Amino acid sequence: MSLESELPLVGISEIVAAGRRFGGLIRRTPVLPLDGAVTASGGRPPELLLKSEHLQLLGSFKIRGAYNAVASLPEEVRARGVITFSSGNHGKAVAHAAALHGVKATVVMPRTAPDVKVDGVRALGATVELVPPERRDVYPYELAERTGAQVVHPFDARDVIAGQGTAGLEILEQTPALSAVLVPVSGGGLISGVAVAIKTLRPDVKVVGVEPELAGDAAASLRAGERAVWPTEDVYRTRADGLRATSLGTLPWAHIRRLVDDIVTVSEDDIDRALHCLACHGKQVVEPSGAVAPAAFLCGRYIPPTGAGPVVAVVSGGNVDPAVIASVLATPV
Amino acid sequence: MSLESELPLVGISEIVAAGRRFGGLIRRTPVLPLDGAVTASGGRPPELLLKSEHLQLLGSFKIRGAYNAVASLPEEVRARGVITFSSGNHGKAVAHAAALHGVKATVVMPRTAPDVKVDGVRALGATVELVPPERRDVYPYELAERTGAQVVHPFDARDVIAGQGTAGLEILEQTPALSAVLVPVSGGGLISGVAVAIKTLRPDVKVVGVEPELAGDAAASLRAGERAVWPTEDVYRTRADGLRATSLGTLPWAHIRRLVDDIVTVSEDDIDRALHCLACHGKQVVEPSGAVAPAAFLCGRYIPPTGAGPVVAVVSGGNVDPAVIASVLATPV
């Protein structure tokens, strides 16, 4: 028995409390039908529904966890500000959550970060500190020690997991008849929170993670019963740029091994086909990372039993270069 | 005083009855926020919200009117089937509404119709009759006389207008604080129904029609106080292929002159900019006709007073060739 399996999991009450903290500032995103999914999956229903976090504030689910983390800090800690080191959706989310609370956010980025990402975070009112790439994961903690500011980890933190779990609560309220929920996996924060919500309230509903084959460390971990770490150059092969964590977080791994039914993988072609189907039939523009969960259903990587209720796929984000979608739409599938 | 202005308008009770007839078969489409609209419109809010009929069954609002028209027919009339002559979204809607009622639908199309449209209607279970283009508007009535089937006009019919009006009822329930609703105009069925719902229940809310400049017969009609008819070759210049009616219907004109506050026009460039903004910021794939109402807000053709409540634009449909959206997304604006 490893230490990890003894970590206390996030509880449903923490997720309910997170939802209360939102106070209407975070969106209750719609669950949208995916017309044409039946054809694409080559069979009759179960129906595929999209929990549409690409329509969330800032275009991804990340604001749920970031907001809860900032809102949960004791007043005197929060006053010293927050720090994070994601240059993607989580970085923006922390910047915005801090702005909503009137506190300072520092986002640490590698010097190699493209200007557009740096400008995007600055536009949300955060301070960006550029560091050598190898210092990116260390510097935030040094800075925190020096300034007393709080690091908000993108996935390996209770408050973040509890915040992400609010998406799971909403799914249960919005689609009571569901038979399974498909959730993208990277560091594992989102699926951990969603799994707590679903398995506490509806243990009969399957919780299935979805990863790109090319960044399949979580699927490998669940198969082996031991947390795998993949080389950075391996996980960077996937076009799903939000799912390139090299391993699960410690706390997410504890949740996943105890609560998640399965983790399946999708190919890069599956992701393209899903992006195309989501745009043409679902009328939704989604980022590649946001398409992996629907891809698992559409491309037969998760096949629900005949007669099962609707499957809900979490579309985690929509922040994509328009040129990517243009090229997907221009290519017949 | 013309005869038209004496036509009795559709009443709110007919719209409420239409909504009851739907019995859950027609979707209550979501009202989605349009992030980034603020930037695109060059000012601070009022907020733009999208009544998302591109997410309606079959991808457009047309099923509302078609379903209500078929459902309202006396049993013995309905049993003889229905006929229509639209090869676009209304044709599909009538085919599907008939199928839901287990009755025969005939869709009359010009021999010049592309195979993909003919196949699309046939796939919904309707019979397609191909006629010379000049016979397209006459033949359905001859056929109706011969067979006893009922013609379901795309816009010049009470039951169709009442069905479309259910979208207006939903908007009021979904966005009680709204200050205005923007509605695309072609034959005028949708705006007529929406205007009855809004002006009966909330006369303080503005109802504004939106047309392409290149098919601006309704705006010209409202200005002149007299129904204008534009040449077919003129209205066919707009890329908004669902808005090429050469004039308003008689019954819609009676509604519009009495209930609609204004009709504004948008350029083809405005439509392109709106398609781009809807995809990039709203994450929504929309057909050009569906983009005209948001375009009026985004491009300053409808400017709400400072401090006004949210503006709801009806996105009427999403049935668009993927290549069109690909080309819009590939072109920076």
Mind explaining what this structure looks like?
2 copies of one chain form a homodimer. The first copy, chain A, is 44% helix and 14% strand. By secondary structure, chain A is of the alpha/beta class. Chain A folds into 2 domains: 3-60 and 158-330, Rossmann fold (3-Layer(aba) Sandwich); 62-151, 3-Layer(aba) Sandwich (Rossmann fold), CATH 3.40.50. A 6-stranded mixed β-sheet of chain A has the order 1-2-10-7-8-9, sandwiched between helices. In chain A, strands 5-4-3-6 form a 4-stranded parallel β-sheet, sandwiched between helices. In chain A, helix 6 links the parallel strand 4 and strand 5 (127-131). The N and C termini of chain A lie far apart (47 Å). The model of chain A is unreliable at 37-43 (pLDDT under 50). Chains A and B meet through helix 13 and helix 15 of A and helix 13 and helix 15 of B.
List keywords for this structure.
homodimer, Rossmann fold, four-stranded parallel β-sheet, 333 residues, globular, six-stranded mixed β-sheet, 14% strand
Short description, anyone?
With 333 residues, chain A is α/β, with parallel strands linked by helices. In chain A, 44% of the residues lie in helices and 14% in strands.
